[in-house]
Specification:
Elements lengths: L2 H30 L18 E3 L19 E7 L2 E6 L2 E5 L1 H16 L23 E5 L5 E7 L3 E7 L1 H12 L2
Antiparallel strand pairs: 1-4, 2-3, 3-4, 5-6, 6-7
């Protein structure tokens, strides 16, 4: 799966997220009948992940959404080591470090959300595999093992295994 495909999948997922958040915000505003409400991300405050520019300065300008339309996300890659994301007319240029920070934050948030990730692999699921990743392990007093693997796109990904799962994993990896 190339980066363009990955960005398309990210854009699609974030569009859904933004539409849900906008619908929730509209419901919240309507239910408070004019009372002020706070939002975690203010359009007046630049995000911590990168520099913010007006649409005229961006490689991917976005029109401000209509009053009743949720904001849309536009993702572009103006250069090899940068990604630009535009939401509601504000563009943020992310460096590789900023992309890693965004992935980490989204991953942590998703891990706490319901429903859980699907138990099985969905048909047509696309992925970028890392061959022979760098790994680190640690043993806990209760016998559990921590395995941390470095994925080229996701960064360091930690897994904790019970002793029984370690045996199952070994059997799966050595099965002929």
């Amino acid at each position: 799966m190339n980066l363009q495909d990955q960005l398309g999948a990210l854009e699609s997922s974030l569009d859904t997220l933004l539409q849900t958040a906008a619908a929730s915000a509209r419901t919240s505003v309507e239910s408070t009948e004019g009372a002020s409400s706070s939002c975690a991300i203010s359009p007046d405050e630049p995000p911590a992940l990168g520099d913010v520019r007006e649409p005229g300065e961006s490689a991917a300008p976005a029109e401000p959404p209509g009053l009743n339309e949720p904001p849309t996300l536009v993702v572009s890659r103006p250069e090899r080591d940068a990604v630009e994301m535009t939401i509601a007319g504000k563009t943020v240029k992310l460096s590789p470090e900023g992309v890693s920070e965004l992935i980490e934050e989204l991953s942590n948030v998703r891990a706490s959300m319901s429903p859980d990730q699907p138990a099985g692999i969905a048909p047509g699921w696309r992925f970028a595999a890392t061959k022979n990743p760098v790994m680190a392990t640690q043993k806990y007093p209760n016998g559990d093992r921590l395995l941390v693997m470095r994925h080229a796109g996701h960064g360091w990904v930690p897994f904790t295994f019970s002793p029984n799962m370690v045996v199952e994993l070994y059997a799966m990896l050595t099965k002929k």
